[in-house]
Write a structure and sequence with these properties.
Elements (H helix, E strand, L loop, with lengths): L11 H11 L4 E5 L5 E5 H17 L7 E5 L4 H12 L3 E4 L6 H11 L3 E4 L4 H7 L8 E4 L16 E2 H7 L14 E6 L9 E5 H12 L11 E4 L11 H8 L2 E4 L6 H11 L3 E4 L1 H13 L9 E5 L5 H11 L2 E7 L6 E5 L10 H9 L3 E2 L4 E5 L14 E6 L17 E2 L5 E11 L5 E6 L4 E3 L2 E3 L1 H9 L4 E11 L3 E10 L7 H6 L13 E4 L13 H7 L9
Parallel strand pairs: 1-11, 3-4, 3-5, 4-8, 5-6, 6-7, 10-11, 10-12, 12-13, 13-14, 25-26
Antiparallel strand pairs: 1-2, 8-9, 14-15, 15-16, 17-18, 18-20, 19-20, 20-21, 22-23, 24-25
The structure holds adenosine-5'-diphosphate.
């Protein structure tokens, strides 16, 4: 027997329509590349997104057509998300921090037909345009009177002029919720980029899940500023979550330094934010150096790489900001787990609670996870045994765009597919997962594993250390031993011996790195993560003193 409820496809256009109708006056505030602050409402955004969708249609965009963006977080980027996706096309967000050759490769691989960009990136676009013959129209996202001319891009269109040509009366079409809506390539820190192709259904379900109180916990009382870029896995879903719950949305544009962020947080009354650990280093340094306080900011999601425990403590203890440590990946839209306290944890001493905040957390309903040994057998949830982390759920990829790499799933005895995350983790009896390492980064010493994340977290807690990375280097007896690579804070000094002594009593003695190397800066990849591949190359000829 079938249920007798209405059958409404889960489409992203319904999120923006809901916001326009039920939170019509909630604001979207954007710092623009033009330099000023722009503000309008969800109702304005929905109206303009419809006009833009209609105009894209006039240009010849149809269902399934990829519309690429190379853009900061701003209202025009929001309009393209909803216009391209809502009309049945696919928004393909591209990370501008990638090398132009890589961007051209991704554009061609994705088969992008339209390409919209903030004019900050005009030099990149001019470099790639001749290499991307499949792109039919290039669109500059800027006021019409600031439209740049470009010999390299004949017929360059303008977002505002284009939008003005669209029809006010155009309405969102209804179609199969399994249709593709957005495309995002993995950052390629561990190989060639591969595309994760999200559907309307997966995107709406992910937004519902992300908004739950023990996940991101977003509400109409919040003012949310995603520092995480809209090109980094859809800003972790916030462009969908915020209109879904009617939160005021603040988009920081290109100004991601500590000072600009702090000023925007204060001016707009931001309560909630999200970003990778490296962006918070800048904000915390600015706030500390100038003796500032946050007047409204009370919680932030931190993920993308392990959040150092020292950062969690500083936010909580010095600034009263709750840190929600989150784990996810491009292939998971991206949210998988978040770490928040449960009833049973409320009476624990602060030090015990801190240990929970440091974990990557509990799954959201929708995601299931397990850890397995190399033989595929499931391992116990005891918080100690570590294994390969596998996930499944309606917002997890089942296949990459273009079938790249074949079937990525691993099947269990019931024939159910699990996505192997490439992460090594423990799960405790209460279902809290903790990442030990990426399987490629874990250090294998004498048949035992050493977590590079644990060693990095401890090093970062040293007052002289700005950033730290630990890699495994070849050792004749132990196979691999850890090498600590550190960049010091400006003006700070510390010796190799002092750093190694800092580990004493905090970890098993045999985990202590064999040596320390000082560098000016730790290389970061396009999404702010430590580029271990680069470090491994840099230290390829390095020999440990113990070898
Ligand atoms: P890429 O895999 O190309 O680097 P993603 O942004 O998809 O791009 O990265 C996902 C990976 O980032 C995860 O598999 C995991 O290794 C790491 N990661 C994400 N969040 C965390 C976290 N909170 N702690 C530790 N590692 C994390």
């Amino acid at each position: 027997m079938q249920g007798l409820m209405m059958d409404m496809p889960l489409l992203i256009s319904s999120i923006l329509q809901h916001a326009a109708r039920h939170h019509g006056d909630a604001e979207i505030v954007s710092r623009r590349i033009e330099g000023d602050i722009h503000r309008y409402t969800y109702a304005d955004c929905e109206r303009r997104a419809r006009r833009l969708a209609s105009a894209l249609g006039q240009l010849g965009a149809g269902p399934g057509d990829r519309v690429a963006t190379l853009a900061w977080n701003g209202y025009r980027h929001m309009e393209i998300y909803y216009a391209a996706g809502g009309m049945g096309g696919v928004v393909h967000t591209i990370n501008p921090r990638l090398h132009p050759d890589q961007i051209a490769w991704i554009v061609n691989h994705a088969g992008d037909r339209f390409f919209a960009f903030d004019i900050t990136f005009l030099p990149i676009v001019e470099a790639i345009a001749p290499k991307c013959p499949g792109v039919k129209a290039w669109i500059a996202m800027v006021d019409a009177d600031r439209q740049p001319g470009s010999a390299a891009i004949p017929g360059l269109l303008n977002h505002e002029t284009l939008l003005a040509q669209g029809s006010e009366d155009w309405q969102w079409p209804q179609f199969d919720e399994r249709s593709a809506v957005a495309l995002c390539y993995t950052s390629g820190t561990t190989g060639n980029p591969k595309g994760a192709l999200y559907s309307h259904r997966s995107t709406v379900l992910h937004a519902y899940g992300a908004a739950l109180p023990d996940a991101m916990g977003a509400s109409a009382r919040d003012v949310i500023l995603p520092v995480v870029p809209m090109f980094h896995v859809n800003a972790w879903g916030l462009p969908y979550v915020c209109p879904m719950v009617g939160a005021k949305l603040v988009l920081p544009g290109p100004a991601l330094d500590g000072k600009s962020l702090y000023e925007l947080f204060e001016a707009e009354g931001v309560t909630y934010s999200a970003g990778v650990p490296t962006v918070w280093l800048g904000l915390l340094q600015h706030v500390a150096a100038n003796g500032l306080r946050f007047s409204t900011f009370n919680r932030t999601v931190i993920g993308g790489s392990a959040c150092p425990p020292a950062m969690i403590r500083t936010f909580r203890e010095q600034y009263g900001v709750d840190v929600i440590h989150a784990w996810g990946m491009t292939e998971l839209s991206p949210l998988g787990t978040l770490s928040r306290l449960q009833n049973r944890h409320l009476s624990l001493p602060a030090a015990e609670q801190q240990k929970i905040f440091e974990k990557q957390g509990h799954v959201i309903f929708g995601i299931d996870m397990k850890i397995t040994g190399d033989d595929g057998a499931e391992l116990p949830w005891d918080g100690k045994t570590y294994g390969n982390l596998m996930v499944r759920g309606p917002w997890v990829v089942r296949e990459y765009f273009g079938g790249e790499g074949g079937d990525p799933l691993v099947y269990d005895e019931q024939g159910r597919g699990w996505f192997p995350t490439g992460d090594v983790a423990t799960i405790d009896a209460q279902g809290y997962m903790q990442i030990t390492d990426r399987s490629k980064d874990v250090i294998k010493s004498g048949g035992e594993w050493i977590s590079s994340i644990d060693l990095e977290n401890l090093a970062i807690a040293h007052p002289a250390v700005a950033n730290a990375a630990v890699i495994g280097v070849a050792h004749p007896k132990w196979d691999e031993r850890p090498l600590l690579i550190v960049a010091l804070k400006p003006g700070a000094s510390v010796t190799r011996e002092e750093l190694l002594a800092f580990y004493e009593g905090k970890i098993a003695k045999w985990w202590t790195p064999d040596d320390v190397q000082f560098v000016d800066a730790i290389p970061l990849g396009a999404t702010g993560k430590i580029l271990k591949t680069r470090l491994r190359e840099q230290f390829r000829d390095y020999r440990l003193p113990t070898a």
